[in-house]
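ESCALATION

Customer reports they have been waiting on this structure for their group meeting. Please prioritize. Original submission:
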Amino acid sequence: MTITPGCSTLAASSIRSSTDSNRRVARASDESLLGDEGFVPTTHKGLTYPFGDRGPASGECIDVAPGVGWARLPIPGGLEHINVWLLDDRDEAGEGVAIVDTGMDLKRSRAVWDALFEGPLAGRRVTRIFSTHFHPDHAGLAGWLCDRFGVRLWMARTEWLMLSMLYTDQRPEPPREATAMWHAAGWSDAEVAEVGERGWGRFAQICSQPPAGHMRLADGDEVRIGARTWRIVVGSGHTPEHACLWDEAGGLLIAGDQVLPRITSNVSLSLIEPEGDPLGDWLASIDRFRAMLPPDLLVLPAHGGPFAGLHARLEALRSGHQDRLIDLHRFLASPARAKDCFEVLFRRRLSGDDLILATGETLAHLRRLEVDGRVARETQDGVWWFRALAPA
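Update from on-call: job pushed to the front of the queue and completed.
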């Protein structure tokens, strides 16, 4: 069994068997507002966590399978960390390590990478960087790492384009389309003005300059990384072209934010595609993952601990959204704005960037009902009013 040098080790068989603005951007990237475990396996809600409460400390690497290391980087906010995966690799220059996901461009994140390169990864050559999607906790240090080691970024095309676009989109005030959407959702003029005062485009504050090009990952691709072959499985809804890595022979899935064990990923209607159906994309991805992927994989998520019980988790994610859609449809027996629906989905008072996040998630649910023919939308003085078309 090959072991990543410097990593703590647990036998693969036992695993298989058993700054305020930064905080706001971090939360909006991954975690939904709709309401992580030494090496003692635990079980909770149909999921088994083979590492129990244990996770890598700062600058530490733990082997979760032969040639697959687990490290963590800090991020602001309630999530506290992102998991990154260190894969034994080999190319024409010899042995090395490939990195999956990077963390945000924060001083303390760079310091943890320095500790890893001076500790468990000392003397190891980085071969390439993978990012599952464009969010800054997953790709924020991609450019810095690629420049540091002279390697390429591997990423889905749409995600790379989003990363590159958002890095450069900085404005002194929100675009007209953003303020119009906030008004349409039922925001007051004061709420629009308060958020507008913060400017537009904080992405570059926590993201290093992206590489000028990328190696494209596409759904169904098979990528050889060291002794393992990983199949790219794309999901949508959280982001447009989120790339998961599936090692069928080894029983592993690097899931990014597409399947998280204890929280629901943020699914929001965005300004970039205001008539899209991201929740429909998300639910379709859940169905596709369940049909394609076996239930006994060890899932390596971006947040929380590695877990087994993929199908149980997919079903819980699906049923949670379906329940909220039913509640929302009942509520719309009388016409309501998106902001009026917060009491159904969140049940607490929201303001500031939570207001932005809640608006995106609410509109995603309303848009799913609209596309499904269960609600109608009418515009009055620039405000969207939604009403149920049939009894709940």
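Sent to customer with the following note: The longest strand covers residues 81-91.
Escalation resolved.
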